[in-house]
Structures are given as structure tokens and as C-alpha cells.
Fold ribonuclease Z.
Amino acid sequence: MPQITKLRLLLSSAHNPASLLLLRKPTSASFSLLFTPTKTLRPISLFTPFSSLSKKNRTHLSRPLTQRNHSSLRETGRREKAAPPMEEIGSVGFNKRRAEGNDKSDRPKKILSLKDRKLNPANTICYVQIMGTGMDTQDTSPSVLLFFDKQRFIFNAGEGLQRFCIEHKIKLSKIDHIFLSRVCSETAGGLPGLFLTLAAIGDEGMAVNAWGPSDLKYFVDAMRSFIPKACMVHTRSFGPSAGSDEGDISGSRKFSDPIVLIDDEVVKISAILLRPSLSEFDAEEGRNQFSELVVKPGDISVVYVCELPEIMGKFDPKKAVALGLRPGPKYRELQLGNSVKSDRQNIMVHPSDVLGPSVPGPIVLIVDCPTSSHLPELLSLHSLSSYYGDMSGNPPETSKAVNCIIHLSPAAVTNTKDYQKWMTKFTGAQHIMAGHEIKNVEIPILKGSSRIAARLNYLCPMFFPAPGFWSLQHLNGSAPGYRALIVLVSCSQVPVSKLCESIPAENLLKFHLRPYAQLGLDRSGVPTTNSSSEIIEELLSEIPEIVDAAQQVNQFCHTTPMLNNNVIEEPCLSENTLPSCLEDISREDMEIVLLGTGSSQPSKYRNVSSILINLFSKGSLLFDCGEGTLGQLKRRFGIDGADDAVRGLRCIWISHIHADHHTGLARILALRRDLLKGVPHPPLLVIAPRRLKRYLDAYQLLEDLDFQFLDCRHTTESSLEAFESDTSEMSIENNANGVGLKNQDVNSTLFAKGVPMQSHWNRPDSPVNNSVVISILRNLKEVLKEAGLEALISFPVVHCPQAFGVALKAADRLNTAGKVVPGWKIVYSGDSRPCPELVKASYGATVLIHEATFEDGMVDEAIARNHSTTKEAIEVGDSAGVYRIILTHFSQRYPKIPVFDETHMHKTCIAFDLMSVNLADLPVLPRILPYLRILFRNEMIVDESDDVVDASASAAI
């Protein structure tokens, strides 16, 4: 293709020839010398290939000359004034303070007082708006925004809330209060990320009120294991607590009485608690009358009542003059509802003397009736009787007309005759059904991300399959994963005739409350549908040569021949010999699905870390599980396809405690629990740093997550060897940490003997029940065997305390000729600087998935944050002799495609969200890189610094 040839010539002429010498691979002789496996591997020898990373050579010679250079300059200006202490591992530096968990970002900040805003009830704009988080994928409860000029109230904060706000430029910096209708993963999964973002605003962060029923404090306290001390959250729990003297929720006499939470000049917000009916709840849970009934805090739901003050009548200046008032401040006081003294007469003038008839203030109800067992309680709430219409029998002066009701209740509840009849009691109210209506599945919430996915699918459907979020009307059920949606439509429980008129919620749908003249629905902000065909038409108009590029990609993806196990590739790829593990590989063996490829926090185009290892009929594993992982699964596989993937999970492995790597875990576990309810199944095995167990154990007080926990330290190579050689308790008890390191050679550890980091690594942790550990290790061995896997081995890496990478090895197999074929091997770095343990674990890997947070010109920034640059990640793979390298975990300063140097990407590819890499397609994986440059050529040339700043600001506010 002429364009590709010209592009390569341009790149090669732009690079400094001297820099190419740094990229030469070691000779086969030196490679054998450095990487022959031995029991004792000296760390210093591993990093001879990294000697090119000396400081004088860390210039950005290989970087494309585009306006993207401004990002480096901007980031350089943000670095700390005092350089953090650095240590060397081989010749690669790292931030010791950060690795030990002592970086200043975790230092407690001064106690932040809540915002004090001057409120003006007489002149304010107010509306409620649907924040459609989770609605297109049905993985979380939608959020609702109650907006005032100077106050923001958010009801529910499911996973993806920040990403939704970034997409639609909704600023969250003015949030005063967050209310939860239930305390569970569905409604609160986005809180950890939101708290972290608010803490990072400005020099001191921001404080926020979090309101919720029962034991909300358990949820917030659970997060303290991974939320920095800088986060200021004022927890406001209300109602009976399962941990208090009123723990018998079923016997609370005044359980359903309204609880006033906010009562200021502009709004009064009350909460009415809903508990599950004991008989209904007992039957739903499959218990008999002799079984123990436990209602957890997460089972309590809330109806929120938002009442605005009455709207004063129109001011009549003629009446004011007649009562002896001069024009001036007293007119204003009367309009605010205050009495004043007449200027000319010895009387008091009251508002009613000069104002016309008042108009009752608008009222909004937010109703969450999550199950049929909560419905009897909702129907019998006496505290809502004053809001019913004429049929309630209330005197007119005590009746309160409700203007809008937002129903968060699921369709299985709202479509029942009893619920519909209850809705009719609110005469004149506008009912908005926000509980996972099928209409909302048709429109992707993340339009920017879906646009990128559609373009990538056009270029290379092999690695970028058609995602499951395009509109049904355009796909006609033909795309993978959409058969499930069609079944869902046909089987939805919609009654033949509804008793009460309602409308389905739509993303960004508003209901105006003030000014009074605008009272009612406003669809002006609702996003329009955007079909894949429209996206492709735009692409072809913008980049006409993409047609030829797509044809060439399709040709080499489906017609690349193999000869004597050597893939016939371009000259730069011809040295890649097909590994024996890929002989006669089946497309049903394994695929890697990159669910989230961004770092730190979700962005418009990239979600945070999560990787699905899809073993097809043998199940699947998750490496990391950042916020929004479930939503990404549903976007990739469709609604039912994602449910199948969650049911088939064998194990979830978490690399470290940072929130962008695990805050989607509770939602996945909760869904698996619900999907397998009534079906015999073992708890899901979660392998993670021990600190995460504190969070999960605390969370268990809210809802059962049905998991079995194993510390990553128990899955290191030495621990597993000790387990295999002697499974008695003594072989583990002899180790001070209870992690089976009895016979470990200190030279094979991450840090050399006697250095400060080794003592930090060996710091004692909480006691371990060794018999339980041995039992779980046996379970792990059985789980791996059933999945066709030989081993899952964790290894320490340099990032933060208890940070790990993982190596996954498949069992050997027989090919069609009866020959034993070695199993494939995948290594995932987690977040890490290049380090000896990572190179050692990657030796001979089929695929290395390595973080590449920063571009090559930002080595200092990478060291300060204990991350890797693109070049460093590739050199780790080259040094270990891996077959293919997939780069991921890109800084959000690269919103669409990171900066990379194509000259040293001969075995490497850039990851994108929802990208799927099948083992059978590995030979051609690096060949799509030049074509990605064509697809994103405008993004590579145009300076996106403004977009990045906007995205960061939106995420932070």
C-alpha cells in the first residue's frame, strides 16, 4: 500500500539513526547466556538489555513530531518540586517511597468543612435529570441529579457515573450530597472512584456528604483500606442499624416514618425506608419457617421525597405603596416571605398583604422498590398518603400534589397490577420509568467509545469484533450477542394494558421544576441514536484511504500462509518463529479480551484495568476488575453473553490495591451470586493482596458476595512449590508470614537481601489460618485443572506495597497427529516498573500484557509513579524472549491512541477497549499497527491537549 510505504519512510527519516542501535536485539548467544532458566537468577544480569536506559539516553528521539509533544511539557510542569528518593534495580530506577506506600498522596489533609452556599429560593433554576449510568447495559442502577443553581444532589452512584459525566460534560464539582436508595454494588459501585476524584481536586480536595439507609458506614469504612486518607467523606446513615440495639429491623415500630435529611431555603428532602415483607422475603429466598431469617442492611430500600418550598404569589407594588412602603429593600424582604414595618404608617406589612395567591412548591418522588418482597411495604406506607390524589380522602388543605415520580424499581415489579394501581393514586404526576427499560438498551451511553469501537471494527473485525451496544433497529439482531437482546424484548413482562400512563427514562431527560413557567419534561438534551452505518460513512468521508487499508488488513488476516512453522510476514516480522504451543491451535482454545485499557480513572474512550481470559467452554478468568468491568462485558458480549461469562468465571486475580484495578469486583461477585441462586456451585476464588480482603469482609456485612479469598503471596512460585512438596501445616507455619517461603532462595526475590525494600516486603501481616490456606490451594489446583490450566503463579513487582504480576500456563495437549504440544503462557505485569521478577516470569511467554502508562519521553514521570514507558515495556518482552507483547494501561493524557515508535514494535500491539485477541491470530497481531496510524492519523496530528484537560476536569469535578 503506497500510503504505508510513505509513512514508514517518513518515520525512518525522522528518527535519529543512533537510537536504532539501542533497539537491536541481543544475539542468540548472548540471549542463551542471559536467559537460560536456573534455580538462582541474579537480578543484575537480567537488565543488561536495559543498559540503554541510562539517563543521558532517555531522550525522546523516537517520538513522532506532532503537536502531542505539548502533553509532555504540561506534565513536566506538574512534577513534584522535590524529587522522590530513587533506588536502582539493575539499571532501572524506581520510586522507593511510592513502592513502600509512603508517597505524599496518602498523607492526611486538613479536615475539610462542607460547602457553605448562599441560597436564594426566590430566584433559582431547578430540575431533576436522568443520569443514565448503567441503563444501556443494565449493570447498575441509573443515577438521578437534582440540580439547583448552587447545590447538586445525586441519587445513587453506580459504576460508570464518572465516565458518563465525562462523556456528557456534566460537572460534579458542585456536588453537596450523594444519596443511596440502597447500599449495594448496584447503587454504590461508583462511589470509590468518585471519592478519589473529589479528593484530587485542587490542593486540598473536596468534602462531600454521603447519605444512605442503615449501615452505610460499613461500606465507607470498607473502602478505607484503599482510599487515601486525603479523601473526606461525611457519612450520614439513617434508620435502624443492623449493628445497633435496633438491629431487629422487622420489629422496628416506627420503621416507615419519614426521616427529614435536608431542610433549607430551597428544598426539603425526606427518606422513607422500605423493608422486605418477611413472608414474601422468606418465600423468595427459599427458606422455610424454621430457617433463620437475616435481613441485611443491603436489603433495606428508600423512597426519597424532594419538596420545594411554595412559590410566593406575584408582588403587587400598588398594594405596597398603599400600605405606606417606599420602593427598596423591604420589597425584597416581603418577596422572601418576611414581614416588614411600614415606612409611613405604624403597622406591620405581611407578605400576604402584598402578594398574590401562592403556588404550592413542586414535589418529586424517587422510588426504589427492588423486589416483589418490598412491594407490600410500599403499598401500605401511610406516610405517603398525604401525597395521594382525591381518592385518598385527605382534606384539600393537607393534600400535596406530586409533579414527578422517578421509578428506579425494575420492570418485574413496576409491571405488576398492584404497582400499577399504586401509581394511579398520584393524580396528575408524571411517571418516569428508569428501572432498566428495554428502550434504553438501544442507545449507547458512551457514544465516543462506541464510535471508536465501530471504526476499529470496520478496519479489523478479527481483533475488534462488533460490540453489543449498537441499536437494535440498525443491527436487526445480526451482530454477535444480540440474539440475547431480542429474546429479552420478546420476553419482557409488559402487561397488555397499563393502568397508569408513564414514559421510559432516557439519558439526560429533564423534568423542570423551576422556573414554574417551564414545569414539565424537557427532551432537548437527550442524545440521538447513532448507528454504526452513520459512523462508518463519516469515517469514509474523513479518511478515504481507510477502504484500501481495511481490504489489506482483511487479506493478511485471512490468507497469511504458514511454512515450516514460520509465518510469512513482512521483513520486520520474519524473525518471529511460530511457537510450538500454537501448532494446530483451535479458535476455541483461548482469547484475551481487553475490557479496560486506561489508567487511574475511567475516561471517555478507555475504561480502567480489566482483562478477560476467555477459555470458551472451559470458563474464564479475570485479571483485575476495575470499575465498570461488568458494563464492558455487556458491551462486548451482549446482555446474556455477559451473564454467561460471569457464570463461567473460574477465578478473579487482582494485581494490587489501587482502586482502578478492583472496584468493579463487588458488582461482578453480586451478579454471579444472583445468576447462580438456587444452583449448587462453589464460591468464586478471588486471588488478591491481603489488604483487599479487609474491604471484601466489611462489604459482606451489606450483601453476601459468595467468594473464597486467597492471598497473592500464597500463589508465588516458592509458595506453590512448598505446597506441592509438603502440604502439611508445618511447611507453611515455618514462614513468619504464613506464605510458604520456607525454602525460597533470597536471590530469586524482587529485592536483594538486606536492602530496606526486602524488610518492607517481609513485613508481618495479620494472622493466617494455614489449614484454610492449604484447603484453598487444593481448590485452586482443581479449578485450574478443570479449566485446562497447569499453573497460575503470582510474582512481586515494583509499584506499591503488595503489588503483583501473574503468569498463567496452560496444560500440555495433543495435536491432531498425537504429538504432545506444550501449553501457552500468558504473563500480565499489573502496574510495575521493569524489574527482575517480571522479566524472569515472562521468560518464554506466548503473550506478555504489559502496562505502558507513559510515552518514551516521560521516563522521569514513569519512575516517579513506578510505571513503565512504552519502550521499557517492549524491552522487558524482548529481554524475556516473549512471542507477542500487548501494551495497555495508558495514561488518560492519551485519550484515543498513545504515542509510540513503530520502529521497535515488531512483535507488539496497542490495546483498545473491547479488543479481542485469539491465540490463533497472534502471528498477524503486530501487522495492524501501521493501519492504526492511518485510522487515528487526525488524532495523532491534531493537538488533543485541550480535550485531555477537559476530560480530566470533568472527571475531577
